[in-house]
């Protein structure tokens, strides 16, 4: 099932134009790539917010509809407002069915409930949660499963251990020196025990000799850190 994104053309640029769009509950956007020139667009804040609630939106070839035209795209970048966490800008990349695209896909860790070590209190450390892949648009996966059910304590999985869908390659492993780019994805280890050191209060000596003993110790004043409540605008 295809996912459709509706957009309209926009001509104004700059921060002021972007602010005006957001007041109209719209999101500035752009589409680029391929042989065509970049085109500035605007999206409905409500529609795009609803669409990105589905993780598949980030890992699917989308139908971007502008008027009577429709183009195949993927989300290349999505920016959020630093304070409000609302969508601030979206970049779309044109895709060609005959040419491989490079994008990021999430790793889905499965089999944790079946892992004996994890069931007795060991810890699964996840070092990589997404990877950059290259594939034709028709082979674009919604994610790559990482089966950890058989990992014992002290064992780990690397990029070369992943079972990739047909037609999908990991871009970092296309170098000649594969071992140098073979990252550890996850490992199973014993939980770290944090030992809290008991604070020992030093006794107050009331019979100190000399002037320092007579004068006593002065109490330190607490200093409060001021916080900046102003949030910057998330324009691109």
Model description:
This protein has 236 residues and is mainly beta. The chain has two domains: 3-95, Ribosomal Protein L25, Chain P; 102-189, RNA Polymerase Alpha Subunit, Chain A, domain 2. It contains five helices and 13 strands. The longest helix is centred in the first third of the chain and has 10 residues, at 14-23. Helices cover 13% and strands 34% of the residues. The radius of gyration is 27 Å and the shape is globular. The chain has helices spanning 14-23, 45-51, 116-119, 178-181, 210-215, and strands at residues 3-9, 26-32, 39-44, 62-66, 69-80, 87-94, 101-110, 123-126, 130-135, 144-147, 156-158, 169-170, 184-189. The model is unreliable at 207-236 (pLDDT under 50). It has a six-stranded mixed barrel.
Total number of strands: 13
Known CATH architecture of the largest domain: Beta Barrel
Mean pLDDT reading: 84
CA-to-CA gap between the ends?
31 Å
* Contiguous helical run count: 5
Taken as a percent bin, the fraction of beta residues is 25-35%
Order of helices and strands: EHEEHEEEEHEEEEEHEH
Q: What is the C-level CATH assignment of the largest domain?
A: Mainly Beta
Total separate domains: 2
Low-confidence stretches: 207-236
CATH topology of the largest domain: Ribosomal Protein L25, Chain P
Q: How much helix, percentage-wise, in residues?
A: 10-25%
Please outline the major beta sheet: 6 strands, mixed, barrel
Cα radius of gyration in angstroms: 27 Å
- Sheet/helix structural class: mainly beta
In the CATH hierarchy, what is the superfamily of the largest domain? Ribosomal Protein L25, Chain P
């Amino acid at each position: 099932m295809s996912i459709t994104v509706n957009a309209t053309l926009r001509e104004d640029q700059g921060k002021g134009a972007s602010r005006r769009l957001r007041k109209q509950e719209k999101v500035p956007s752009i589409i680029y790539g391929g042989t065509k020139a970049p085109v500035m667009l605007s999206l409905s804040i409500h529609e795009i917010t609803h669409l990105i609630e589905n993780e598949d939106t980030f890992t699917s070839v989308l139908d971007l509809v502008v008027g009577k035209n429709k183009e195949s795209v993927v989300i290349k970048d999505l920016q959020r407002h630093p304070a409000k966490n609302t969508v601030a800008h979206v970049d779309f990349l044109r895709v060609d069915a005959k040419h491989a695209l490079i994008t990021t896909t999430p790793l889905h860790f499965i089999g944790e409930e079946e892992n004996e070590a994890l069931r007795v209190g060991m810890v699964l450390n996840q070092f990589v949660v997404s990877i950059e892949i290259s594939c034709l648009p028709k082979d674009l996966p919604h994610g790559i499963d990482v089966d950890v059910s058989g990992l014992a304590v002290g064992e780990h999985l690397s990029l070369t251990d992943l079972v990739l869908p047909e037609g999908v390659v990991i871009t970092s492993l296309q170098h000649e020196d594969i071992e140098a780019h073979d990252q550890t994805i996850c490992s199973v280890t014993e939980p770290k025990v944090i030992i809290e050191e008991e604070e020992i209060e030093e006794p107050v000596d009331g019979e100190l000799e000399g002037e320092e003993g007579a004068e006593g110790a002065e109490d330190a004043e607490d200093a409060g850190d001021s916080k900046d409540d102003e949030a910057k605008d998330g324009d691109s």
